[in-house]
Amino acid sequence: QLQLHQSGPGLVKPSETLSLTCTVSGGSISNNNYLWGWIRQAPGKGLEWIGGISSSGNTYYSPSLKSRATISADTSKNVFSLRLESVTAADTGLYFCARRVRGWYSNGGFYYYYMDVWGKGTTVSVSS
Amino acid sequence: QSVLTQPPSASGTPGQRVTMSCSGGNSKVGSNSVNWYQQVPGMAPKLLIYRNTQRPSGVPDRFSGSRSGTSASLAITGLQSEDEADYYCAAWDDSLNGWVFGGGTKVTVL
Lengths: 128, 110
Prior knowledge:
Structural class of chain A: mainly beta
Shape of chain A: globular
Low-confidence stretches of chain A: none
Number of strands of chain B: 10
Helix content of chain A: under 10%
Shape of chain B: globular
Number of strands of chain A: 11
Helix content of chain B: under 10%
Mean pLDDT of chain B: 93
Oligomer: heterodimer
Order of helices and strands of chain A: EEEEEEEEEEE
Largest sheet of chain B: 6 strands, mixed
Strand content of chain A: over 45%
Distance between the termini of chain A: 39 Å
C-alpha cells in the first residue's frame, strides 16, 4: 500500500527558504503513470496547487509560485521535495504532498486524473 | 478567488440528502473530469469521487457524483454525523498542467 511521509521544519523565518520532503513507500516514484505533487492550504482557506514532478523529471508549477518554487526528485531514495524561496507570512499554512494518477477512459475517449494518496500534511509557519 | 465555484455551505439533518455544486466559469469543469475530496480540518483530503461519478474502493455508496455540461455535483444520501467536513471539487487543467480547485463547501450536520 502506497504511503507518503512528509518531513521538514514547521517554522521558517521570513525571506528564508521553506524545504519539505515527501518519502514514498510501497511504490516507486519512477512509475510512468504518476505525477508527484505539492498542494497547500492557508489557514481557513481552500486548497492551492503548488506544482509537481513527473517520473521523467518534468516539473510543473502554479504560475503564481513558479518564480519561487522548485520541485525535485531523488529516485535512488524514492523521495521528492519542495523548496519555496523568499517566504513571507502569506506562505504560512498546511502543506501536502500527493500522488496524481492518470487513467484512460476508453468509453469516453479521454484521460482522467485524480489524486488518490496524500501525505498527512506539514504545518508551516513563517515567523521571525 | 477559486477557479471552480462551490457554495460555501450546506447543511442537513441526519438521514437527509445534501447536494453541492461545482461550476467552472471558463469550462475547466467542461474539459476535464471532476474529482471530489472530503477534508476534516487539519487533516489530509480524502478522495471521494473521481472521473465525475466513480467511487474509490472503501467510499460509502451514500456519496455520489454527477456531471452535466460544465457543472458537477456531489450528493450525500442518508447524511451522517461523520460527514460533517469540507468538500472540495477539483479538475486537472491541461493548459496549466496543474490542479484547479473549488473554494470548498462546508457541510454541517444539524
